[in-house]
Input
Amino acid sequence: MTKEKAIRLLDAATGRKACDLVIKNAKVVNVYTHEIQNGDLFIDNGLIVGIDGERKAEKEIDAKGAYIVPGFIDGHCHIESSHLTPTAFSDMVVPYGTTSVIADPHEICNVCGSDAMAYMLKSGKNATLSIFYMYPSCVPATPFEHAGCILNAKEIEEFIDDESVLGLGEMMNYPGVINADGMVLDKLATAYSRKKNIDGHAPNVRSSDLDGYIGVGITTDHECATSDELKERIARGMYVMLRQGTACKNVLELVKGIDDKNYRWALFCTDDRQPETIAKYGHLNHGVNLAIGAGLNPVTAICMATINAAECYGLKDRGAIAPGKRADFFITEKLTDIKAEQVFIAGKLAAKNGKILSPSKPVKAQGIEGRMNVKDFSKEKLKLRLRSDHVRIIDIIPGQVVTKAGEAYVARDEEGCWMHDGENDILKLAVVERHNGLGNVAVALIRGYGMKHGAVATSIAHDSHNIIVIGDNDEDMATAVENLISLGGGITMVKDGKILDNHRLEVGGLMTGDGAQEVCKTLERMHETAYGELGVSKDVDPFMTLCFMALPVIPEYKLTDIGLFDVTKFDFVDINLD
Amino acid sequence: MTKEKAIRLLDAATGRKACDLVIKNAKVVNVYTHEIQNGDLFIDNGLIVGIDGERKAEKEIDAKGAYIVPGFIDGHCHIESSHLTPTAFSDMVVPYGTTSVIADPHEICNVCGSDAMAYMLKSGKNATLSIFYMYPSCVPATPFEHAGCILNAKEIEEFIDDESVLGLGEMMNYPGVINADGMVLDKLATAYSRKKNIDGHAPNVRSSDLDGYIGVGITTDHECATSDELKERIARGMYVMLRQGTACKNVLELVKGIDDKNYRWALFCTDDRQPETIAKYGHLNHGVNLAIGAGLNPVTAICMATINAAECYGLKDRGAIAPGKRADFFITEKLTDIKAEQVFIAGKLAAKNGKILSPSKPVKAQGIEGRMNVKDFSKEKLKLRLRSDHVRIIDIIPGQVVTKAGEAYVARDEEGCWMHDGENDILKLAVVERHNGLGNVAVALIRGYGMKHGAVATSIAHDSHNIIVIGDNDEDMATAVENLISLGGGITMVKDGKILDNHRLEVGGLMTGDGAQEVCKTLERMHETAYGELGVSKDVDPFMTLCFMALPVIPEYKLTDIGLFDVTKFDFVDINLD
Output
């Protein structure tokens, strides 16, 4: 609020001036009382003025008895998972009734550090959607790989005072917290000194360790898998998020733990949601509708998706239809199956019937386009020389990001190098360092991907986002890597030296300024090619599976640019078993 | 939280070090889940560590199955109403389980402005009780009297960034807000720019005006008189306080409006609570127990008195028994009649069985002692020369601060001056300006006080706190005023030139560093004298009634240092009717 805005609001509220807009015949959902108020909703200068009263308005919309619901606030998401830049993401999610998000730009910051943060802030400020950020707390995610940068307390200080930065992002290094690691606590201290929030991420941390983790001021969680965990965390003062992402879908389990007392401390979030999932099922509304479908009272669910998130993050200007709040809301026919028919942001109609009406103006991704700093890459580096036929192998578990630590007997050529054998569904996997020109290329073997012939490469490879490539032959793999470098990042598929298709992600190798529709069309086409021409197993997602094979915090075997990593032992292991 | 505290908390939580204290066999009230948790509560370094777990402690207390309740937070109070300095107030209220208060030093700031604010902050920081302040928004309260100073946006800027100052105090000038007065909005803007709270005070403001008042960011209210008003305000996004003061007792009416949805936006407060009321009925616990007695669920009532107040004022470090929160709590046998048997503040036993164990060290009230700047006062100035026998008169309504605009026919001497007539219970009332040496003395007539002979004078006279004196003869009245000046403020009673008794309030004429016990003893003795020797009517409180006779915002007739004021007409009126 400012003095000028206050004067205008007072004039509008008291009828001294006409309001910009009235929405007549509305059923307004009141998140304070849980009542439905029938009346005419007045809006002026982007703010809610009030319901009914002796007022006039310049413009009139008839809600015809439909409900007005405060705009949804996504408690935690990674915009990068949508493959879209913040402005393109805004255009995609606003039509679903999401009007604010709290985003952690962890992925892009792993690639381009402060440059990425600056870009995300600038792009976020240009978006119709309100985009708030949590500054990534764990870059790099682990010391077992090379990311694009290292963000410590010093780097955090550079951005944390920005008004769009609400605090420190998910503190995944929970062992570091619990063991009182000095560098980790220095990061927390940047939030302490500003009284800003700190988000949590601590799967399976329980009882005394959880006391410590929460006790040092980590106030949210989105990693609960069971309703028991949810209850345990809320009882200790945490806000718990019911997540409905693409891979992690927790709403239906967690909603069992919500009751009429503890709901106050629960939110919804999407975390990692792929563009196809958004296109097919919607955005935050998907989780909300699932919860309502499972029996949660619709107004309770709406409170969780609105005022609770606003309270959790100290966003005093939103989360409710009340005087002086931002006029972020949507109109829906029903509360049992919420569908944002008309979405208003700051009092302006921003989307109607699923279509964005006021697309956000993109921001040039200066300095973070491309970012493929690969040194001395050659086909030779993909050779996998083995000492024995008996080797460690990454076993894909269909539908999961966890792998199994497998073993296999493989064929070798006269030089002792691995040879593809069509019979056993073993392929070569390589990670090519792309940030610092270190020249690192690590190679391992993987089973269960199903591809018959060719190569798939991507620059999305959590959390360091080096290049990851899979294939049956070094030629196609090398072509894929080289093509990806020339694209500036994305996803590519190669067969017999021919590039089959590309999904270009020019912003840090993770995002594109292209619209959601084009991205979804490309991805659909590429999935078809992967399953068809390349013969990838229908049990796995050809691209998402690949993305998680370099993430050395999820068991059991993973491959980083340094080598094969056994997450259970928390150490690198030799590929050769004998 | 700081890095050092975090390290220590983590060591204590995980059992790497012994905790300071464990309270065994406790029933801990959980304000997040509304459950009662049976267990051992561990405390270290002033903070809650957790319940149970593999931990040791240096010291052990057995709760023997009693309840542990988070320390109560008084959402709104004026410490000055207790006649005690902040440190003495702390000693008085902590034994009742109040561990934090949000105080508006409106009274003392009317007397000594920034000097008072500096003193209150310093004294507050010395108190065992956590004292937070809202910077007074309406000094002077009205332009119809002379206060000790004028505090505008510029003066507010001087203090609002102090970490103990949570925002702007009750905005009583609701007409100024609603009419978008520039000076008023400048004050609000000091809070806007810091994202600090603004407290409300807007009795009877409803519908559209209320939309405006709330819409400009005024987020609390403690002036609801009916449960309908409470509901109306909560529905618009306000936190509403259930007040139980000495004169204003709203809990039993307002609690009728609380339900299991809207309770989240309700708090308790004491506002103006006299020392005798505290001594007799307790502090915030009184209102809480009244609400529980009226049928409110005890845990709901506790949430309102703890976590809700913490949320309302952004006090993230308190309001719950949860890891990392301040160890402010008390032990009570029952939840139906809450009695703080042992009160802990920051993990230390601060009071037991109603007695303070660690009295706060007083702070010298440098520069704001005395402050009786009266110029050219003489008995002559008390003379009331009338043009006619037919006059306007202030009619006291027993038990209320509202008066009636009365008329009377009175006797006059040969000079035309009012003469006391024992038959009709009319006395002389005078207000003597004491802040700026203006020499103002205004005189009027008042009916219903009952005093037979003598004078009572006090320097507590809301809101400007000039000297107010009542009497049947000018000699005793003048003696009372002169004695009060020499005391440096307080209350005094005079009869036949003899000083009957004094209550010395040396700090700005409003507070004393003497302990609560002494203050209560003095006031009890003085009440006896007033009702006995002076013959004041039992229907009125001899001192409190007087205090409100100079408050020109409460109808109908009031007297300021400028003259007789008709609050209904919002203008001064002539005492002569013919």
